[in-house]
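Note on ligand handling. Small-molecule inputs were canonicalized before submission; formal charges were left as drawn, and no protonation-state enumeration was performed. Where a ligand contained multiple stereocentres, the stereochemistry in the source SMILES was retained. For glutathione, this procedure yielded the string shown in the input block below.
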Amino acid sequence: MLPILYSFRRCPYAIRARLALGQAGVAVELREVVLSRKPAELWAASPAGTVPVLQIEPGRVIAQSLDIMRWALGQGDADGWLVRAESPDHRTLIDTCDGDFKQALDRYKYAERHPQRSAHEWRDEAVRCLIDPLEARLADDPQLGGAQPCLTDAAVFPFVRQFAAVDAVWWAASPWVATRRWHDAWQGSALMTACMHKTPTWQPGAPVTVFPPGAA
Ligand SMILES: N[C@@H](CCC(=O)N[C@@H](CS)C(=O)NCC(=O)O)C(=O)O
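Structure output:
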């Protein structure tokens, strides 16, 4: 039996998990869920009810996206994604992404719910938290991992993708040239294309969908 991944196609946490599983070449049964109608099987596997959730075997569950990434790459990491992401500054980048940046991103996206500041002010905050630091690093190297990508690139990219999509016209003309190049390379990559392959919503008894597409 394959490990089971409960996932939601557009969720940035689920995207980072799928990127790592795809990179590692770990085949899983993909169960696409609708967040407003999560299946009982997901709740049973993880009472937190968030996605992604990876059930490696009955009773063995990983319910945090970064842990899924690390587990997947622990199964296969021919390109050294883990080792290049080991330094404390990489951990800081991911913490900032998941913390201050994610908060500013959500407020920028749903600015009408956060009237303490304007959408542009929330956007500026998001830039200050993460986009500026990314630009400084990516001006010197094409990837956060250096010449080659690493876990940090894949962990952070889905959130920058979401940020860029809030106002794609503004982003395309923005001054973060190196970050935009990095974003576009990830967005157009074969790995990302495989990750964003559309699958029907899972329900009990549905035919098994294997991820990555085409894996055994
Ligand atoms: N810390 C978790 C966060 C996962 C998370 O918040 N996922 C969102 C979807 S993007 C979710 O499932 N939210 C619950 C909901 O919307 O009901 C992780 O890294 O996996």
